[in-house]
From TrEMBL:
Domain of life per record: Bacteria
Organism per entry: Hymenobacter nivis
Protein's UniProt name: AbiEi antitoxin C-terminal domain-containing protein
InterPro entries xref list: DUF6088
Length: 242
């Protein structure tokens, strides 16, 4: 295909792309043999100031506000990473989520994404942690609470007791089906310390089957040093939590 034809296709498709949405070579052509021509066209458009390079092989049409160029939204970035890793969409985790949930006042300089594999060539403000593939978007809030339990001792500007108190409140508000799904996800992918803590919390709520399912996944000889007081978690000893 002629270079002029590639350039025309790229420009025509870019005109249909929302401002701030990320595009890559595969958004313009399906044949890998044509990627070089698309890359050259995008490079020319970047030099002309029509698009901005976001990361290797990724560009966006900038939205210009009175404060300057607006970077792509987090959701646009998440979707682009998801397309590259084959996931429905990577989900945010880490301090940015803990801040949103009211667990910490710290605002992170780097946003952490859960992805099926580590990603390179991401912007400096993004990093990935490896997690199993997302099965359905509705699982994201539950998975984020599992991340809270995983990091209970590492969440900045708070204490494990305060975190556990907040998680217990959230669990009480979940519907029974949501609790069952949370238990399923924990059994599938949460580390033992998070499963033990979730089991201890669920044991204090109506319906003990979920707690029992989690207990069966744990080594009865393992102790979990999480820094949680007996006042906040009265049944901690039964779950070998300290």
């Amino acid at each position: 295909m002629a270079k002029d034809s590639i350039m025309q296709r790229v420009k025509a498709q870019l005109d249909q792309v929302p401002l701030g949405a990320l595009v890559s070579y595969a958004d313009f052509v399906q044949e890998p043999a044509q990627f070089a021509a698309v890359a050259a066209a995008l490079s020319r458009l970047r030099k002309a100031g029509e698009i901005i390079r976001f990361a290797k092989g990724q560009y966006y049409r900038p939205h210009i506000s009175r404060f300057g160029t607006v970077a792509p939204s987090d959701q646009a970035v998440f979707a682009a990473v998801g397309a590259a890793t084959g996931q429905l969409i990577p989900y945010a985790t880490g301090v940015s989520v803990y801040n949103r949930l009211g667990l910490t006042t710290q605002v992170p300089a780097v946003v952490t994404l859960a992805s099926t594999r580590r990603r390179r060539n991401l912007p400096r403000r993004l990093r990935t942690v490896v997690r199993p593939a997302l099965e359905q978007v509705s699982d994201v809030p539950l998975l984020q609470w599992l991340e809270v339990l995983r990091d209970v001792r590492r969440i900045p500007d708070t204490s494990p007791d305060r975190v556990v108190t907040r998680v217990a409140k959230e669990l009480r508000q979940l519907t029974p089906p949501a609790r069952r799904r949370l238990t399923e996800l924990a059994c599938q992918q949460a580390p033992p310390r998070a499963r033990a803590l979730l089991g201890a919390l669920l044991e204090n709520l109506p319906g003990k089957k979920d707690a029992g399912a989690l207990r069966r996944t744990l080594n009865p000889l393992t102790t979990y040093r999480l820094g949680i007081s007996a006042k906040i978690l009265p049944n901690r000893a039964a779950w070998h939590i300290q």
